[in-house]
Amino acid sequence: MKPNDTNIYPVFERIAGRPEKEILLGQKAISIWLIGLSGAGKTTIGSALEKQLIENGVLTQILDGDNIRSGINRNLKFTETDREENIRRIAEVNKLFINCGVVTINCFINPTHETRNFVEHILGKQDIITVFINTPIEICEQRDVKGLYKKARAGELKNFTGIDSPFEAPENPDVTVFTEKSNVEESARHIFNYVIEKIKPTWKKKS
Questions:
Q1: Whole-angstrom Cα distance, residue 78 to residue 13?
Q2: CA-based diameter of the chain, in Å?
């Protein structure tokens, strides 16, 4: 995608590239997207995954919905247009991390096929691992530690995913985690076992 301003002249070709940085870090950069409803366990599982990756020498960065909304995307609301812009900015940040050789763990609802295709367009399918945190909405509502579902059901919170805004489950995720059947550590290990050999092709399981 070309910049809108004709006075902008990108200099990407002058900057040290991804291959040099991956060699420096001893890892392959990928973008891991943990997708699911609010309360599904994305951030909790993502944090556990990060810990397991770091313990195995992988440099990571977690991008979490609330953290991003309180910082780089604090000016965005929850309209359809702003949600698309939210995902676009996150994907562009991922692109920067990938260029630095860093494994990025994304914990976002990312609710529709359209927004996921948008991410794929920016990053390239080969650099994305999609993980569906498959937690039924009934379970998410039972957890509801933030009280968001309660507000949405009462009409106090509009455009809430799963209530009055759609959530389309990923059709062909690389990994699916069923949180009803697995605890946090087991869920994170399931994802770890899938991603580690893609990040470190020579990785050997510790005895």
A1: 36
A2: 57
Question: Which residues fall within 8 angstroms of residue 37, CB to CB, at 6 or more apart?
Answer: 109, 135, 137, 140, 161, 162, 167
Residue type, 134: N
Q: Are 105 and 199 in contact (CB under 8 A)?
A: no
Which residue type, as a one-letter code, is found at position 48?
A: A
Place of tokens 């366990």: 41
CATH of domain 21-199: 3.40.50.300
Residues in the chain: 207
pTM of the model: 0.90
Helical (H) or strand (E) element with 33: strand 31-35
CA distance 85 to 88: 5
Both tokens of residue 50?
């990060």
33-73 pLDDT tens trace: 999 999 999 999 999 999 999 999 999 999 998 899 999 99
What residue ranges do the domains of the chain occupy? 21-199
